[in-house]
Amino acid sequence: MTLAFLGFGSNLGDGRQLVQSAWNRLAAEERVVPLQLSSLYVTEAVGMVSSSLFTNAVGMVETELGPLELLHLLLRVETEHGRERDGDAAGYQDRSLDLDLLYFGDTVCRLPELILPHPHIASRLFVLAPLAQIEPCFRDPLSGQTVEEMYQQLLCRIQRGEVPAQSISRIERWIVTRKE
Question: Which domain, by its residues, includes 60?
Answer without folding.
Answer: 2-172
